[in-house]
Amino acid sequence: DAAEKGGHEYFMLKEIEEQPEALANTLRGHFVDGRVVLDEQRLADQDLRDIDKVFVVACGSAYHSGLVAKYAIEHWCRLPVEVELASEFRYRDPVLDRDTLVVAVSQSGETADTLEAIRHAREQKARVLAVCNTNGAQIPRESDAVLYTHAGPEIGVASTKAFLAQVAANYLVGLALASARGTKYPDEVAREFAELEAMPQAVSTVLGTAPQVRELARDLATAKAVLFLGRHVGYPVALEGALKLKELAYMHAEGFAAGELKHGPIALIEEGLPVVVVMPSPKGRAVLHSKLLSNIREIQARGARTIVIAEEGDDTVRPFADHLIEIPAVPTLLQPLVSTIPLQVLAAEIARAKGYDVDKPRNLAKSVTVE
Ligand code: G6P
Fold first, then answer.
1. Most informative mutation of 56, 85, 111 for ligand 1 (most atoms within 8 A of CB)
2. Are strands 81-85 and 252-257 parallel, antiparallel or unpaired?
3. Is 366 a residue of the active site?
């Protein structure tokens, strides 16, 4: 057991460290002759060209990976994208037809809600593309196209490397659609793919923040609640950071879109409340950056304890960050691949500081095969 954990106390900590490799494995082999390609495609290219709407359906962390995908797919493919909790999607009456692509994201490929969602979609003649970490699982078997993540087996119940691989695979789905539909030239697809290929290195770099985050975690272990704020692709990262903390440390944690702060969440701010803020790049998203900066200023003035995740060299945040965690500068749309990492470490280390079982949090299952 100790050997399997590679010297780590928990599988989850090992899996967090395996993320550069999981990412590289997921990307490998997907850029062929100027196009990004899927693993299995039982659809004609023309079917992909005819798609006029995309739904991403998923549960838990996979759902958060879908929220990230929305920003990338809309931008790259100029297609409307809705992201839906699988358990809600199937009990509504979603408007689907043969020109709708439903992307089902599932690590296990066996999640009951996601499986039933794609069955419903197929009955309505929608096309289904599965993003899955498990070869031959039920969801990919029942799909028209498949892209496998290659995160390897994940033992920790709370998803880390499988989540990161899902985020990466969803980018590939976006680029595959852009390739098939001609919304991007091959050289643009090549450039985006090359940027993705540089990400495992960036993830390795950000893993270097772990000792600093561990120290912070010991401090936060007694907090009653933690808030997470982000905008654009940082918003799903905030949601994922909060989910990890609930799952592992049994703390009240909530993620908010920072722009909503004054519409409610600011009422929660009180002396000493830890608030984690995921900052966009000051260069890549200057306008959003300045809006978030004023958010941090506001909450700090009300006594919150600010924990800021910001691009290295972003000195404008320093005066407002009680605790600064620096991440490498990467292309804006890809930032979740690095900004998520410190939040995973934070949740795991708070759980460890509280003496909880990081790999097997109470009441949770790795894969939920009943509704
Ligand atoms: C469970 C797991 C989560 C996971 C979710 C969806 O709740 O505890 O970590 O994100 O199921 O699982 P899937 O296998 O469909 O990605």
1. 111
2. unpaired
3. yes
